[in-house]
Every structure is written in structure tokens, then in C-alpha cells.
Inverse folding.
């Protein structure tokens, strides 16, 4: 059998025990200032490292992501244009000249993709503005002139 709970007669609570300190302000104290382990923030300032100009851990904003997607699309179109232009080009070189011309053809086709990947990979620690500047420079430098000139005036 379980014991019955004590009956409550509606009387007031028992008076406080004089042996127990009921000082409410003591609850807000974090120790004695004379204690060797006591730390006071006013006397121990926290050293804060200066924040870098660009935080590499911060994700890109939506505008930057859209901009990267636009540049990615431009570079993809550039790669396709270089592929079409290089496939129409006939090279008659033999030996070393033929091998060098084939290597140059492959590099011309892959240059936009390499530029885009290298800018994103090497520019990880750079600001977003710097990455967009390099992507814009690549978009100007890598314009597929053979494709544009043969399709426009051919």
C-alpha cells in the first residue's frame, strides 16, 4: 500500500528557517572578488581578432549566384562556338606542326571552361567583386572571333 499524502488544512506555509540565508541579491552574485578564480570582464578585456574584409565562409547571395550562372552560360556558349569553329578548320600540317596545331585546337576549345573553373577555384579567397572582374575579363578575352566572323560575313 502506498502512504496517503499529508492532508492540507489550508493553513499558511511554514515560516522561513532562520538558519537559511534568503537574501535574493546573493543569487545574482558570481563569487567573491577576492577569490583567486574570480573573473571580472571589466578588468579582463577580451581580445577580438579584426574581421577580414571578405568572409570566405559566408555563402554567396542570390544575386551573385545568378551572376555566376549567367557567366557560366556565356562560357558554355563560348566553348560550343570554339568547338564549332575548330571543327570546321582544316589543318594540313604534318609531324610536329600537326601535333602542335591539334594541341592548340583542343586548348582553344577548352579555354573558356578552364577560365571559368580556374576563376572560381583560385578566387575562393577573393571577394565576389574580384571574381566577377576576372570572369568579365575572360568573357572579353575569349570571344570566339572565328565563329563570329564566319557566321556574320561568310
Amino acid at each position: 500500500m502506498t502512504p496517503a499524502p499529508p492532508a492540507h488544512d489550508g493553513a499558511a506555509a511554514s515560516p522561513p528557517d532562520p538558519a537559511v540565508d534568503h537574501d535574493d541579491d546573493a543569487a545574482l552574485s558570481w563569487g567573491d572578488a577576492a577569490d583567486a578564480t574570480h573573473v571580472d570582464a571589466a578588468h579582463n578585456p577580451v581580445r577580438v581578432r579584426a574581421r577580414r574584409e571578405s568572409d570566405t565562409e559566408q555563402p554567396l547571395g542570390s544575386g551573385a549566384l545568378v551572376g555566376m550562372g549567367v557567366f557560366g552560360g556565356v562560357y558554355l556558349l563560348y566553348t560550343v562556338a570554339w568547338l564549332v569553329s575548330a571543327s570546321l578548320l582544316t589543318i594540313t600540317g604534318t609531324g610536329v606542326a600537326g601535333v602542335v596545331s591539334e594541341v592548340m585546337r583542343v586548348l582553344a576549345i577548352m579555354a573558356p571552361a578552364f577560365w571559368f573553373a580556374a576563376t572560381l577555384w583560385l578566387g575562393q579567397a577573393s571577394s565576389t567583386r574580384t571574381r566577377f572582374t576576372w570572369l568579365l575579363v575572360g568573357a572579353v578575352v575569349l570571344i570566339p572571333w572565328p565563329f563570329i566572323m564566319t557566321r556574320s560575313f561568310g
Q: What stands out?
A: The two ends are 105 Å apart (CA to CA). The mean pLDDT is 78. The first helix runs from residue 62 to 88.
